[in-house]
Amino acid sequence: MKQGMTGQQLKRLILVAITLVMVALLGTSLLGSLGEPQVNDRLQLYQTDLALRALEFVNSPDSTESGEDFTAARNALLGEKPLETALKQYQTVRTSAEANLDKFQAQLQTANGANETSLTVPTEPSSAPEDMSRLGTAIQQQQELVNQLDLRIGILEAEQNNVSAAQATWTGILDRNSTAESNLAKTANVLLGLWSEPPRLVPDAEPVLKNLDGWFRYRSLSRLYELQQRSDSLAALQAAEQQFAQRTIVKLALVNVIPVIGGTVGLVLLIVTAVRKLFQKDTAEAENLAWSVPWEWDTILQVIVLGFFFIGQIILPFFLQAAGFNFSGLGSQAKAAYTLTYYLLMASGGLAVLYFSVKPFFPLPEDWFQLIGKRNWFAWGLGGYLAALPLMIGVAVINQQIWQGQGGSNPLLQTVLEEGDRVAIGMFFFTAAVAAPVFEEVLFRGFLLPSLTRYVPVWGAIGVSALLFALAHLSLSEVLPLAVLGAVLGYIYTRSRGLLAPILLHSLWNSATMVGLLVLGSGAR
Fold this sequence. Notes:
Layout (H helix, E strand, L loop, with lengths): L6 H26 L7 H16 L9 H14 L3 H39 L7 H32 L3 H14 L6 H12 L10 H5 L4 H15 L2 H49 L3 H5 L9 H26 L9 H27 L18 H27 L7 H8 L3 H31 L5 H14 L4 H21 L3 H25 L1
Helix pairs in contact: 1-12, 2-4, 2-10, 2-19, 3-10, 4-5, 5-6, 5-7, 6-7, 9-10, 10-14, 10-19, 12-13, 12-16, 13-16, 14-18, 14-19, 15-19, 16-17, 16-18, 16-19, 17-18, 18-19
């Protein structure tokens, strides 16, 4: 006579079922990110905008030694043909945006065809109306992006004396905008007038042009003031732009030069580490890297699947939606507070699941959840960050070739890039630089990596934990770079045996990313 299922067997069966459901949901989310644009293209354009503003320092009337130093720095940072480079970058992003627009329009056409079929053939209730609404919004956003890019592309063409191409670009905006009173159409019409022969000055041109950003606003207003013969206004505009250009050179150095220096130091560290591994027998250390794991695979699933994915992707969204929270309708500070609160709730739930899952195994064996570890945590954390720089730069180049601007990105990146509120920035910074490193390192390095050494070698545990860490961010384009970063974090943790080292590395990486976004975003503002 067969015995009934034990409580342990039932628990494992439920865990496996939940895991399969979560795998399906996460797979759907990852596939959904396939058609979403990356933030990298937008980052490149922000850096291009900074370079264009720094370009104006070339006309500085100040010939002092300080001015000459800034001019030399400007030439080194911007290259020989900055306007041509900027135009090519904008055209590349426009091509990508137009491809996305065509794809969304094709998907909407397919959805319309399926919807018409459903009116004649009885089917199960579907989310077709929601999909069509989402596609309609995406099409509108891409159309606006293409038009905004064309405004800037036209100014770049005009500044390179290709006025006929600029006029054709701006005329295309007017042809695509049936409403002549739209802001985009008004701006295109003003620009057409400024670069016509003879020039045609449109009433209220100045307030319309002030809607442009950065260098594009400066060049178009300069053209307007020259045509209006407003020498005082032109002189004041040029003086303000000169001051901003000097500050911009410093920002460009911060964004470009410092990572190169850090990456060079990191490359040296990687070479030294490789040489040491090559000429030193490290087998004794390798044999002692694994942890003594008192639990089995069901505890690992319970912590990772329930404590991280299920709470973060199912429980919290359900309760917040039931409570009536609407993320898209929030202001900047409220949105930042929502993001921080959401993450703290998810971290609290995940750490609670972790605690109660491992509590039956107290006292834990040696090396579990140690903060300091056996080596200098600060040196290992900082060294790991420097070593990660050249690896991530190389991976970024490969990743861009693979995804060609698609595959999605962390939505927080775009939000921070465009954010100007200091309180909101502070909350976003705390989320990325403190909350995320602490929670994710405790979970993925402190628990998951050592737990996997029960079943696979240490190098395998580093790889699997790094891959799950990357997949948890739900963007296909981020899987490869985040897996590499996760592998570096895992290596640092297995050698230092303390959580503070990978937490420091993780915090430095996120902090540097945030600072870079803020610097780039400030250039446009």
